[in-house]
Design brief:
Length: about 450
């Protein structure tokens, strides 16, 4: 599309009258702002990211609160309502309400990224290989039922196996089953590698390739791959795939369940094994000019990372999406409200422009017996950012270093998907968050922590 002068909202709506029909006025205004950014009239690309649905089919309103859901593991789900409880995984009604809301929104997306974890958090004896396949099949059909024509790029989560986390580096019943279940969305070559190793790559649109990694192969609890240097040959495959993408002048979105880097809510723990994390960071740095975005799930919380190269220059934008399931364990001080998001990207260079985060206030939805999904925030607006390119995310992280930075309180409230504004993250908690945001490798992260306080910490290299 050619260059146009910035059009007024009225002029834009004349060209896109459908936007008036279903989208709330504010959504239209923001969409137009994103669309006309920098004076171009180029509709940004957009996709849904959903993750960690964790359907608990046993969920029901019971007189005995310990009997509401198997996923509470005997703890009383005292606030159970029609859309769930913070001690339970998702009832089907919650998942349906999320997809219904997505479906009624304009503008619609180009595709969906779905980063895994369909079965509930229950003891291994409650599940089996067949039940896990059934759960993945049920969620796949639910998504296809709501979005029959939309391309979907799914990834396997650590719960999408039985027993959970134990994914092998070779073909098995579950990889083979998902290669059948996801056949409507993926092409033959993608289905072949999916059936053998649980990973694949495919063009999402001309010039944009999705590379879906099976990061469960690098996950600490996975005993099947603990001693492998390159489980399922995925590192080798990833390098080859990125190399070909570079040669073909494609850009790449990396998607996976377990993220790269450090967990933001604890200290010095990588989400995958440290040695596999180091290797992944090395590959991502080497091909950072090809990769324009990373999209992960697994932590159930909303967080951002920025990959720096060896010189400390920001080179990749990384987004961890919060979960649909609201579950927490009894001992955890906070959880997340149910959530999904829409991401906007530049349709020419595929860099990330914005995220619109949606959520359901679970307590309110149960009280009103109605699921009013709302937008929680728009990332660029919330933090005054021009876009979500690596330089902007670095600017965001550095702004958190100031002790009086209220933007960090906002970030942490988003981290919990507005679960409880009274819970604050200070001192050590904040240092963990900021170091994890900026440093994905051992060298940088250790140095960041050694500063002990954010003011004197060397959060850059
Ligand atoms: Zn999960």
């Amino acid at each position: 599309m050619g260059r146009f002068p910035l059009l007024s909202l009225g002029g834009f709506l004349l060209m896109y009258p459908a936007l008036l029909v279903a989208a709330p006025a504010e959504d239209v205004r923001l969409f137009v702002r994103d669309a006309t950014r920098n004076g171009h009239l180029q509709l940004p690309g957009r996709f849904w990211h959903i993750t960690d649905l964790h359907l608990d089919a046993s969920y029901h309103l019971a007189d005995d609160p310990t009997k509401v859901c198997l996923s509470s593991k005997g703890a009383p789900a005292a606030n159970a309502g029609p859309y769930g409880d913070f001690l339970c995984d998702s009832p089907y009604s919650l998942i349906q309400s999320a997809f219904n809301h997505m479906n009624h929104m304009t503008p619609q997306a180009d595709f969906i990224i779905w980063t895994g974890d369909s079965p509930p958090h229950v003891p291994a004896f409650e599940l089996s290989t067949d039940l896990v396949i059934q759960a993945i099949g049920n969620m796949s059909e639910t998504i296809r039922g709501h979005f029959p024509t939309l391309p979907v790029f799914p990834a396997l989560g650590n719960h999408d196996y039985w027993p959970q986390d134990q994914m092998p580096g070779s073909a098995n019943a579950i990889y083979q089953a998902v290669a059948k279940l996801w056949a409507p969305w993926l092409q033959d070559e993608a289905l072949r590698t999916l059936g053998e190793g649980g990973f694949y790559s495919q063009l999402a649109r001309p010039g944009l390739r999705v590379i879906c990694l099976n990061t469960i192969l690098y996950y600490g609890p996975d005993k099947a791959t603990a001693n492998d240097t390159d489980p399922a040959g995925q590192f080798l495959w990833l390098q080859g795939t990125l190399e070909r993408a570079a040669q073909n002048l494609e850009k790449v979105f990396i998607i996976a369940h377990v993220p790269v880097g450090y967990l933001p809510f604890t200290r010095d723990v990588t989400a995958i094994r440290k040695r596999h994390n180091e290797r992944l960071v090395y590959i991502f740095r080497k091909y950072s000019h090809v990769i324009t975005g990373h999209f992960y799930g697994h932590t159930h919380r909303d967080s951002v990372m920025v990959l720096l190269d060896e010189e400390g220059k920001p080179v990749n934008s990384i987004f961890v999406s919060p979960a649909v399931t609201p579950i927490k364990s009894v001992s955890e001080p906070y959880s997340n409200n149910p959530a999904f998001r829409m991401a906007f990207y530049d349709a020419k260079d595929f860099s990330l422009l914005d995220i619109w985060q949606y959520y359901l206030n679970l307590t309110e939805a149960n009280e009103r017996r109605r699921a009013d999904w709302r937008r929680e925030y728009v990332m660029s607006e919330a933090f005054g950012l021009e876009d979500l390119r690596p330089q902007s995310l670095l600017q965001l992280a550095l702004s958190f270093r100031l002790p009086q930075a209220t933007s960090f309180d906002k970030y942490f409230s988003h981290f919990m998907v507005s679960y409880d504004e009274r819970i604050r993250c200070r001192d050590a908690c904040k240092l963990n968050q900021v170091c994890a945001m900026l440093h994905l490798d051992d060298r940088g992260y250790s140095k960041c922590l050694r500063g002990r306080s954010l003011q004197d910490s060397n959060v850059l290299l």
